[in-house]
Amino acid sequence: MTKRPKILLVEDDPHVREVTQVLLGKYFEVVSAASFTEATSRIDAQHFDVLLTDLHLSGEEDGLSLVNVMRQAQPKAMTVLVSGSAVDAELDGDLQADAVMEKPYEVEELADRIRQYLQSR
Q1: At 44, which CATH number?
Q2: Which domain holds residue 53?
Q3: pLDDT tens digits for 73-117?
Q4: Domain for residue 29, yes or no?
Q5: pTM: predicted TM-score of the whole model, two decimal places
Q6: Which of 41, 58, 74, 86 is deepest in the core (most CB within 10 A)?
């Protein structure tokens, strides 16, 4: 049995986090975090293949800051920012993530993008 890629899912909305974790769990091993602080402690303690984070997190830091933390701690990990704003999604290259997905997104499309990225590296 091959090892499933491991995703760190960071989402401050508990309902969205739970549903996304269940849906992505069909394809990947998914570890979730509700905040920037919780996510950074998980990044320090575990290896991830993918960071999937909401751009707009409640609290002191946002998803872009988390992408920067992941880039320094685990530079080979794919980083995906998720935003409910089309304007944010249009800034794709400026956000320094490997991918930007606009909410709502199709989980299968996201899973395909992750698989393609991981196969190409």
Answers
A1: 3.40.50.2300
A2: 6-120
A3: 999 999 999 887 655 545 555 567 888 888 888 889 999 999 999
A4: yes
A5: 0.90
A6: 74
